[in-house]
Specification:
The chain is α+β, with helices and mostly antiparallel strands and about 220 residues long. The protein has six helices and ten strands, in the order ααββααβββββαβαββ.
Amino acid sequence: MSSTSHNSTEVSLLKKIRIKLRYGMTLQAISSLLARIGIEITPYYLFQEGINVTEIPEIKGTAADYLCELLKPEDIKIIGAANFFGFSEEKLLAFLNSGGKCIGIKHKGEIAAFMWIEFVELNYKSTLIHLKPNEAYLWFMFTMESHRGKNLAPFLRNKSYEILKDMGRDKLYSISNYFNSPAVKFKKKLNAKELKLILSIQLFKKIHWNFTLKSY
C-alpha cells in the first residue's frame, strides 16, 4: 500500500471516529479502535418491532410531496451507485432478486429515505433466525443528507409496518448495536420490544464467542 493510500485510510478512520464521538457514541468509537487490532467486541440488541404501534408520525414539510412505496430495480441502481456503506449496485440487485424488498420515500420523484427488508433469515454476527412466513427482518435504513430533519425515519418505519402487515408479515425483527445510543433510542420511541442483549466477541476473525447477556 502506498504512503498516500495509507494516510487516506487513517484520515478516513479518524473521521469516522470523530463523527461517532460527536454523536455521543464514545464506547462505539473505542470498539472501532479495538477492531483495528483484530479484537471485535459487539454487544447488540435483538428487537421486535411493530408492537403497540401508535399513530404514524407526521412529515415535517409538505406531506403531499412525499410518496412511500416499494422501490423498483431502477431505484436500486441509483442507491447502489452511491455505494452506501459498501452496498454496491450488484449486491443490492442480487438481494432484490433473491426476494428481499426495499421500501422507500420519494420526494417529488427523488429517493429521500429507504430501508431494506429480509424475508429468508436474520443473520447478524452469531445470531441466525430462519424467518417464518409471518416474519421479516428490518436490517438497514438510511435518510439522504438533504432530507434529514424532516421526521422521515419514524414515518418510513411505521409505514413499513403497514406494508408488511398487508403482506402477512406481522412479526418483525431488527438489530441495534448497544453502543449506538441514537439507534436504540429510536427503536424505543417506536415501542420496539427488546428480546435479547447479546455479546459477540471475535479475535482476528478466527475465534468467536457468543453470549446472551439478558433475555427480556
